[in-house]
Amino acid sequence: MKKGKLVLKDGSVYEGALFGGNRNAIGEVVFTTGMSGYQETLTDPSFCDQIVVMTYPLVGNYGCNPVFNQGKRCFFQGYVIGDLCDCPSNWRNEQSLEQFLEEQNVPTLVGVDTRAITRKLRKYGVIQGVIVPADMPEAEVQALLAMPEVHNQVKTVTTPEIYTMGDGRLHVAVMDYGIKQNILNYLVSFGCHLTVFPAYTSAEEVLRYNPDGIFLSNGPGDPKDLPECIEQIKKMMGKKPIFGICLGNQLLGLANGADTYKMKFGHRGINQPVKDLQTGKIYISSQNHGYAIDEKSLEGKNIRVTHISCNDGTIEGVEYLDHPSFTVQYHPEACPGPGGHEYLFQRFIDLMGGGK
Q: Which of 85, 120, 149 marks a domain boundary?
């Protein structure tokens, strides 16, 4: 490994050992708090174009296996970890994390004080940064930092063509804004036949398939980058039951006249507590988002908040009273992460007339 550095736009520099990619990493620097599930995190399309800092100190201890992949590849710009395990041990281990990152061409900085980076991001908010060789001249570093931020990452991660999964009785149209594989698997396990559509498919084409329900998936970036998708969602509202998660939650909110905003540092990790306001129960959830629905923008609208974050009170779920639709901000299939969210999928099944 050669020497490298993470340089933030505010001038902060964190040095470490550099490996994994033959390119520079340029993107928004975020942190995630999961203690496991690093491969699922690496292949979650919702992290597209970001430099991801792992708060858990040791990464790679159980190796990698294709069975854990949640997307067709890793869309990270870069990866920052404290300690890299060079001797993984697990019965499903097929390659080391180092080999995986080299294969995926992900610039990775190791041996960094990730706690210091996390404290900075929590205090000042997420910030643009670069991962580059340690000897890169300052002028070149500044030129990289001055590059405009990337938008509309959904175009990068969505499926290029329609495909199907499962052979269940209920037919679900899935809008792919960057969907994770285990979400598809979950829907199939609940007896659904899926037709997965590219993000920019027209409402007319989706409805022509006459699905029993519509699922709006997770995905990366700012929901306001997707006005075309929002317009198509408007045309589908009230025609079929809709269940949305993560980016799908934000897009359906915008389609119903709500507003969204960028959070200071977002929620990323598999240990985020959420309260279901209808039952009073608190669930531990898997989350990956930097935007949220603005609660004030719901005033006067026939929309009910159903879930909130126990950490900061932000909206984690809403129900639409004018049409059979509901959404949550987190990833209820929890891969990686804890279970206990199956009731949300069952609710969707019930809305489609599927019963128990």
A: 149
Taking the complete model, does pTM exceed 0.70, yes or no?
yes
219 in a domain, yes or no?
yes
Task: For residue 336, say if its preceding peptide bond is cis, omega within 30 degrees of 0.
Answer: yes
d(CA 218, CA 154): 10
Give the CA dihedral 123, 128, 129, 130, nearest 10 degrees: 170
In Å, how far are 29, 143, 253, 303 from 125, measured between CA atoms? Answer: 9, 22, 24, 29
How far apart are the C-alpha atoms of 45 and 156, rounded to whole Å? Answer: 9
Calculate the average pLDDT of the chain: 96
Beta bridge partners of 289: 267
Are residues 76 and 92 both part of a single domain?
yes
**Domain co-membership, 31 together with 166:** no
**How do residues 33-49 score in pLDDT, each as one tens digit?**
988 999 999 999 999 99
Last residue of a domain, one of 95, 123, 149: 149
- Residue 198 and residue 327 in one domain: yes
Q: Which of 226, 163, 222 is nearest to 200 (CA)?
A: 226
Residue ranges in the chain modelled with pLDDT below 70:
355-356
d(C-alpha 152, C-alpha 177), whole Å:
10
Catalytic residue annotation: 246, 331, 333
Question: How many whole angstroms separate alpha carbon 343 and alpha carbon 340?
Answer: 8
Residue 356 lies in a domain: no
